[in-house]
Specification:
By secondary structure, the chain is α/β, with parallel strands linked by helices. It has 2 domains: 107 residues, 3-Layer(aba) Sandwich (Rossmann fold); 125 residues, Formyl transferase, N-terminal domain (Rossmann fold, 3-Layer(aba) Sandwich), CATH 3.40.50.170. Helix content is 36%, strand content 22%. It has 8 helices and 9 strands. The strands form 2 sheets. It has a 7-stranded mixed β-sheet. It has a two-stranded antiparallel ribbon with strand order 8-9. Helix 4 links the parallel strand 4 and strand 5. Helix 1 packs parallel to helix 6. 39% of the residues are buried. It binds 5-O-phosphono-beta-D-ribofuranosylamine.
């Protein structure tokens, strides 16, 4: 039973560095934030994300895929650990496994993921390299509900960043990551407050009462570098 004023109990699935987890932990430690991280689960023992959770005083668990006969058994073990902690919503943050229907059905509309591109462009691995190889001039990140496809669920929030001349994968990834750290806590807030929800495979947004800044932040928290870039371009005469 949840009581009014209770914060949404969130579980985070990770595999590695955990910088997005950190952004969510930091947000949830701020007064008034409507969600709390109650457990962090990694499929890898050495994930730095586990230390971030422990430092924040949050339970950190490893569920090792090698201990299970198949993907479905592993996914069901995740579901059972999450349910045991009364988790209402799951955030995957750099979790390097595709979740099967065993998981996505159990958490339909209650699981979200962050991906480092403006979906539906460049799903899957190496999104930033894909963006560079295609010559994209704008990239960014997307938070979406998880369905059984690869980075394919309905979009909740996106942030755009410019791709600058001379960018390599690292420079672009770093710029995108900064945006990820802004947009994931924002998207989690929207879902926890019931302002974004999944209905019939679509995201329904209710931003009534949200400030203009909050609703435009869904699209582009900071397009200033792009604007400066365009001014440079306008001054350029061949
Ligand atoms: C992020 O770029 C995220 O979008 C992608 O994997 C990376 C994880 O980074 N799914 P971190 O572990 O959150 O630092």
């Amino acid at each position: 039973m949840t009581r009014p004023g209770d914060r949404l109990r969130v579980g985070v699935l990770v595999s590695g560095r955990g910088s997005n987890l950190q952004a969510l932990l930091d947000a949830s430690s701020r007064p008034g934030y409507p969600a709390e991280i109650v457990v962090v689960i990694s499929d890898r023992e050495r994930a730095a994300a586990l230390d971030r959770a422990r430092t924040a005083g949050v339970e950190a668990l490893v569920v090792n895929p090698k201990d299970f006969a198949d993907r479905e058994a592993f996914d069901l073990a995740l579901v059972s650990e999450l349910n045991a902690r009364r988790v209402g919503l799951v955030c995957t943050a750099g979790f390097m496994r595709i979740l099967s229907a065993a998981f996505t059905n159990a958490f339909a509309g209650r699981a979200m993921n962050i991906h480092p591109s403006l979906l539906p462009a460049f799903p899957g691995l190496h999104a930033q390299r894909q963006a560079l190889e295609h010559g994209a001039r704008v990239s960014g990140c997307t938070v979406h509900f998880v369905d059984s496809g690869l980075d394919s669920g309905p979009i909740i929030a996106q942030a755009a960043v410019p791709v600058l001349a001379g960018d390599g994968v690292e420079a672009l990834a770093a710029r995108v990551l900064k945006a990820e750290h802004q947009v994931y806590p924002l998207a989690l807030r929207l879902v926890a407050e019931g302002r974004a929800r999944m209905e019939n495979g679509r995201t329904v947004l209710n931003l009534a009462g949200a400030s203009e800044r909050a609703s435009s932040a869904l699209v582009a928290p900071d397009l200033r570098p792009l604007a400066e870039n365009l001014e440079d371009l306008a001054r350029f005469t061949p």
